[in-house]
Specification:
The protein has 182 residues and is mainly alpha-helical. It contains five helices and two strands. The protein is elongated. It is an enzyme of class 2 (transferase).
Amino acid sequence: MKIYTKTGDKGTTSLIFGERVSKNDIRVEAYGTCDEANSMIGLGVSFLPDEEWAKDAITVMRKVQTVLFHVGAELATPAGKEVAWKLKEEDVQFLEQTIDRWQEGLKPLKQFILPGGTPAASALHTGRTIARRAERLAVAVEGVNPLVMSYLNRLSDFLFVAARYVNEKMNMNEPVLHEENE
C-alpha cells in the first residue's frame, strides 16, 4: 500500500465517512493540532530514562496518546455522525486521577514556573501549549462531543503536572519566573 494518495494535492482532505473539506477547515485544524500534541508527548516519552517510575509514566503517556488519537477521530467526524469509539467520562477521570497521584509528591507552587527543565519535561510543556491550542480550535467545531472539550482542558493540566513530575523524578529544579528588577 502506498502512503501517498494524491487526493489532497488540491488542498482538500477527507473527514471520517468520506466528506471532503478544505485543509484549513476548523475540523482539520483541530484534529491536526491534537496530532501535534500527541507527537510532542511522544517526544517527551522518548527522553525518559529506563527507571521504574518512568516505565509507569510511559504506560500512562501511551494511554493518553491513544485516547488523544481517538479525540482527533471524533473531531474528524462530521456533525451528526458517530465514530465507533467514543470518549467516555472515565477517560477524563483517568487524567484527573493521574494528576492527583503525581501531584502528591510535588512541592507546592509558590511562584510561577517557566516551561523547561529536562528535555522530557520541556517537550511535555510544549505538548501542554499545543493541547491548549487544540482546545481553542475545538470550541468552534460544530456538534463536537462535550467530553472532547473536557478532555482537552484536562489534558493541558495533566501535561503541566506531568512536566513537573518528570523534573522532580529526574532531580531537575524547575525554572522559575524572575522579576525584571531582581
